[in-house]
Write a structure and sequence with these properties.
Elements (H helix, E strand, L loop, with lengths): L7 E4 L14 H4 L19 H6 L6 E4 L12 H34 L6 H6 L2 H5 L13 H6 L8 H17 L42 H8 L15 H5 L1 H9 L3 H4 L10 E2 L13 E12 L6 E13 L6 E6 L6 E3 L2 H4 L3 H4 L6 H11 L5 E4 L2 H8 L1 E2 L3 E3 H4 L12 H9 L9 H17 L18 E8 L4 H12 L5 E2 L3 E3 L2 E7 L3 H10 L5 E2 L5 E6 L5 E6 L7 H13 L1
Parallel strand pairs: 3-9, 4-8, 8-10
Antiparallel strand pairs: 1-2, 4-5, 4-7, 5-6, 11-14, 11-17, 12-14, 13-14, 15-16, 16-17
Length: 573
């Protein structure tokens, strides 16, 4: 072949026949005719077989692209005619052979990319080895389509034939099996691998899919045949993992680890990380996480979930500035307590969130292998919120110790203040909490474990607070602080964010001591009445005749006379 097109070249010994005229064109004598037309260097004239035989001596050398270019054997006009006839027969045979391929390509274009069993039985070896799954809106291309793209059906057939062989060879040698279809949330099953590539999270919210007839669990079983017990597995495959290996062991060696990470209430909705392999070599192998939770209630069974995931934050442990994900999460059940005073999340923040709990699990499965080191503070709570069973963890609440109390976990706030000399914000921010827990463990490594035990800050007693409820939406926190000062002449130390549910909200006002809280309540000039729990509360009216309730946090203590009367009553019985 020359230039990708079939060409036939005829050469005469002297360029002219014995009588001085041009030699007869052998192709012109065939039914197909000469393709060169007027440009042909030979004579276009119908001659008889006898005349043609006389010209054999003049046609001394004929070379075709269908023969070896290095061949210099003489070919007669009769031989050339037979060659032309043979070429025409091959061309007709090739066109007939291509027809079923065209029909098959048309069927593949209009049908689902997921072939049923009968179609799979009809596939050729090459088609089975090629990728059967394509992204949406991409036209299915079969092997025959690839061949026909090289030239039109009327074009040279020899090149198509050679290209077909190349396609077959590539298909068998390098089969491609890539799943690039965007998952569908409706088909998501926690027992299946939700995401095949970490890059899928770039289009959040992600969604999952399952392929008909493919049992992905079977592949996972094969992967886990000879895997070490995940409860004892130590990260060893990557430098990032090996860096944290000793702290992983130290976390597990703590006597509280077995109880905290036992996952006793695990059900079919829990997930596990896959074993380490080529699929995860290019993603982070050490991460720090923190989750925010709220309380939800199942409308059908009435079951309450006190650790429902409502925010997920994950940072890269190698580069903490790299936030892998930070998203609000839509709880599955209706929220009964947003815990705004802890996490800053309110009802309106979650109303239009599309990222679901299933999305969060799919993200974690795509990000984590069994050797991924997860770093955090009180990680058992975060993993329980995610319903993820994982044992390759570094938990700062178990590694750092409390002074004189070996069985007590230090708070993240106290640890950060005393070891890093940093103040934690009042409202929890999960990205900040994940980074701080990572910084604490980095500091621990730098000091080779020689860090001072944490001195716990005395916890605020409930009796240092007053509970205020029935707060209208137009009332702000500063209004309540001013009201307390106006009615009691006592300045509170702080006030929690108002948590609204419907048209009214609630909050707590904190005082410097239990005595100050009690004095503030007693100074309010209003009648104290017990609520349903027996705790006293008072009404404070507003200018629009609405009122709020201010309530003590504990029931009133019985007086000495009441105690004596109770004892006397018992003795009289």
């Amino acid at each position: 072949m020359v230039g990708g097109k079939t060409k036939y070249k005829l050469f005469a010994a002297n360029g002219v026949s014995s009588d001085g005229s041009k030699p007869v064109c052998a192709f012109f004598q065939s039914e197909e005719g000469c393709r060169n037309g007027a440009k042909c260097k030979f004579r276009h004239e119908k001659v008889s077989e006898a005349q043609a035989s006389l010209e054999q001596a003049d046609a001394s050398s004929i070379i075709s692209s269908e023969t070896d270019d290095s061949s210099e054997e003489d070919v007669t006009v009769s031989d050339l005619r037979r060659l032309v006839s043979k070429r025409s027969a091959k061309s007709a045979k090739k066109e007939v052979k291509d027809q079923p391929s065209k029909k098959k390509a048309r069927r593949g274009t209009n049908s689902s990319p997921f072939a049923n069993q009968s179609q799979q039985n009809k596939e050729t070896t090459e088609e089975k080895d090629s990728n059967p799954f394509l992204p949406p809106n991409v036209k299915t291309t079969t092997v025959s389509d690839k061949v026909q793209l090289k030239g039109t059906p009327e074009g040279p057939q020899t090149k198509n034939r050679s290209n077909t062989k190349q396609v077959k060879a590539k298909s068998v040698k390098n089969p491609k099996k890539e799943f690039t279809t965007t998952p569908k949330a409706s088909n998501l099953s926690p027992t299946h691998n939700g995401i095949s590539s970490f890059a899928l999270n770039l289009g959040l919210p992600v969604s999952n899919f399952s392929i008909p007839g493919v049992d992905k669990d079977q592949a996972l079983v094969k992967l886990n045949v000879d895997i070490t017990d995940p409860k004892r597995l130590v990260p060893s495959q990557t430098p990032e993992g090996r860096k944290w290996a000793e702290l992983v062991k130290l976390t597990r060696d703590d006597p509280r680890f077995e109880r905290m990470f036992s996952y006793e209430e695990k059900d079919e909705n829990w997930i596990n990380a896959k074993s380490y392999g080529d699929w995860c070599k290019n993603i982070p192998h050490a991460i720090a996480i923190d989750c925010e939770m709220c309380a939800t209630k199942c409308p059908e069974t009435g079951k309450i979930n006190p650790k429902a995931l409502c925010r997920l934050s994950v940072v890269n442990a190698v580069n903490p500035a790299d936030v892998l994900i930070d998203t609000l999460v839509k709880p599955d059940w209706p929220v009964i307590d947003y815990r705004t005073w802890v996490n800053g999340i309110k009802k309106e923040h979650l109303e239009n969130v599309q990222f679901t709990f299933e999305h969060a699990q799919s993200f974690m499965k795509a990000l984590c292998s069994q050797e991924t080191v997860i770093i955090g503070h009180a990680l058992n709570n975060d993993l329980e919120a995610l319903k993820m069973e994982h044992y390759c963890v570094v938990d700062s609440s178990l590694i750092l110790k409390v002074k004189d109390e070996e069985t007590r976990c230090p708070s993240l706030k106290d640890s950060t203040k005393q070891l890093l000399d940093q103040e934690m914000p009042k409202t929890h921010d999960s990205v900040n909490d994940a980074r701080v827990s990572l910084s604490l463990m980095e500091f621990y490594l730098q000091q080779a474990g020689k860090v001072n035990p944490i001195i716990p800050t005395p916890k605020e007693k409930a009796t240092q607070k007053l509970f205020i409820h029935r707060i209208p939406r137009f009332v702000k926190e500063n209004h309540l602080v001013e009201m307390v000062q106006q009615y009691t002449n006592i300045i509170p130390t702080s006030i929690e964010d108002i948590e609204f549910n419907g048209n009214t909200g609630k909050t707590h006002v904190l005082f410097s001591s239990e005595g100050h809280a009690s004095l503030a309540f007693n100074t309010i000039k209003a009648q104290a009445k017990p609520d349903k729990t027996g705790r006293l509360q008072k009404k404070i009216f507003m200018r629009n005749n609405e009122y709020i309730q201010v309530r003590q946090m504990s029931k009133p203590r019985p007086s000495a006379d009441e105690k004596d009367g109770s004892i006397s009553g018992q003795e009289s019985k």
